[in-house]
Amino acid sequence: MVTVLRHISDMPHRERFVITLLLGTLGAMLTACSGSKDAPTSPGQNSGTTPVTTTVDVFTPGLVFSPAFLTISVGSIVRFNITGVAHDVTFQAVTGAPASIPVTSNQIVSRTFNTKGIFPYDCRTHPGMSASITVQ
Ligand SMILES: [Cu+2]
Fold first, then answer.
1. Could you tell me which of 54, 83, 126, 136 has the fewest CB atoms within 10 Å of its CB?
2. Quick one: DSSP state of residue 53?
3. Cα 96 to ligand 1 centroid, rounded to whole Å
4. Ligand 1: distance of its center to the CA of 88 in Å?
5. What digits encode the pLDDT tens for the residues 82-100?
C-alpha cells in the first residue's frame, strides 16, 4: 500500500485523481458489503423461502400502457390502473399468464405473477395498444 501511495504521488494530477476515486469507490463498496451482512435491506437479498412481494403500477395515459415494458420479480403484483377511456388487458396464451381483464374503466385491477417468463398483452379495444411484462 505504501508503495502504491508513493507511486501515486509521482503521478500527474489527473491520474492521481482517478486512483483516489477508485480507492474511494472500493472503500465504499467494502463498507456496504460489511454493513449488509446481518440485515438484508433491499429486495432480492432475502435468502428465506418467502419471496419479496413488490407491487408495481401500470397506467393508461391515453391509448398506451405505461410503462409498456416492465420487468418484475416472481411473486410481484401488478396493479393495472385503468382510467379515462375504457380498456381491456388481454394476455397472450403464454403458460403462467394471469387472467385477462375484461373491458373496464376507472378501476384498479391487480394481477399476481407467480411464473417466470415474458407475458405480452394487448388492449383489444385499441389495436396497437400493446405491452409486455417480464417476470424473472
Ligand atoms: Cu385500450
1. 136
2. P
3. 23
4. 6
5. 999 999 999 999 999 999 9
CA of 125 to the centre of ligand 1 (A): 5
DSSP 8-class letter at 49? S
3-state secondary structure labels for all residues of 84-136: CCCEEEEECCCCCCCCCEEEECCEEEEEECCCCEEEEEECCCCCCCEEEEEEC
| 13-33 pLDDT per residue, tens | 544 443 333 334 334 443 444
Q: What pLDDT was estimated at residue 129?
A: 98
40 CA to centre of ligand 1 in angstroms: 40
Query: Across-strand partners of 104?
Result: 87
Domains within the chain, CATH numbers bracketed: 2-35 (no CATH), 55-135 (2.60.40.420)
Least Cα distance to 68 among 80, 76, 77, 85 occurs for: 80
Contacts of 67 (CB under 8 A, 6+ apart): 58, 131
